[in-house]
Amino acid sequence: MRLFNSLVEQSIKPKGFVGNIMLKIMNNQHKSIFDLGIKNIVIFENCKLLDLGFGGGMALKMLSKKYKDIKFYGIDFSKEALEISSKNNRKDIKNGKMELFLADIGEMPFCDNFFDIITAFQTHFHWQDIENKFKEIYRVLNINGQFIIVAEKYKINYHMDLYKEESGIKKLFEDIGFKQIEYGETKYNMYIKGIK
After folding, report:
1. Which residues are CB-contacts of 152 (< 8 A; sequence separation ≥ 6)?
2. For residues 100 and 73, what is the distance between their CA atoms, to the nearest angstrom?
3. Any bridge partners for residue 52, and if so which?
4. What's the CA gap between 125 and 59, in Å, rounded?
5. C-alpha distances in angstroms, 132 versus 72, 99, 157, 172?
6. What is the residue-level pLDDT of the chain in tens, covering all 196 positions?
7. HEC assignment per residue over 63-81
8. What DSSP string describes 131-195?
9. What's the whole-model pTM score?
10. Is the domain covering 2-195 a CATH 3.40.50.150 domain?
């Protein structure tokens, strides 16, 4: 049980040698999750996209490779994630196309209405005080901006007490103020998108 709890902690906030391995595993194992999210957001020229809990940086790398004319940002509260993701995206960081920050989702270092798109891949089920994090996401999202969550259904069912059913997560989006809420599932994964 101690080993299992340690691995869960590493998936939340990777650190050290084990965290480094965990981030590499996440980059490889979550590609179908990244694909589902990318397929269900509308990306347009010169928009600003923020990825929450970027982990090893693979989602940002995939997005940047596909879309040339947008600016990417990411936050994660793991120093190890920042280091690995910075290495994986060094070219985009060097040329100013991407900026990564060590920060908490509950206190983001951005002004109101800053982002056009916010993504959260395989992370929201770990958030403490999820309602306040949603309020902070709503604050930094532009009017008509998109916020999309994509995750494995079994991880949601295991880690979350609230908001694990479609109706519950939709209600959270509605209560925060999102409109045009869209929910979808594949066999193993789900996504939900709201427009501010």
Report:
1. 33, 122, 188, 189
2. 6
3. 75, 120
4. 18
5. 24, 24, 21, 11
6. 554 454 445 455 555 655 555 555 554 566 788 788 889 998 888 999 999 999 889 999 999 999 989 999 999 989 988 999 999 999 999 999 999 999 999 999 999 999 999 999 999 998 999 999 999 999 999 999 999 999 999 889 988 888 999 999 999 999 999 999 999 999 999 999 999 9
7. HHHHCCCCEEEEEECCHHH
8. HHHHHHHHHHEEEEEEEEEEEEHHHHHHH-SSS-SHHHHHHHHHHHT-EEEEEEE-SSEEEEEEE
9. 0.87
10. yes
User: Is 181 exposed, middle or buried, given 0-12, 13-18 or 19+ CB atoms closer than 10 A?
Assistant: middle
CA 160 to chain centre: 17
Q: The tokens 């045009």 sit on which residue?
A: 180
Residues sharing a CB contact under 8 Å with residue 171, sequence separation 6 or more, in sequence order: none
> Cα angle vertex 112, ends 190, 81, to 5°?
55
User: Distance between CA atoms of 82 and 102, rounded to whole angstroms?
Assistant: 7
The enclosing H or E element of 115 equals: strand 115-121
**Residue type at position 45:** E
pLDDT value at position 1?
A: 54
Residue-wise DSSP of 48-114:
EEEEES-TTSHHHHHHHHH-SSSEEEEEES-HHHHHHHHHHTHHHHHTTSEEEEE--TTS-SS-TT-
Q: What is the strand order of the sheet 141-152 is part of?
A: 98-102, 71-76, 48-52, 115-121, 141-152, 189-195, 179-185
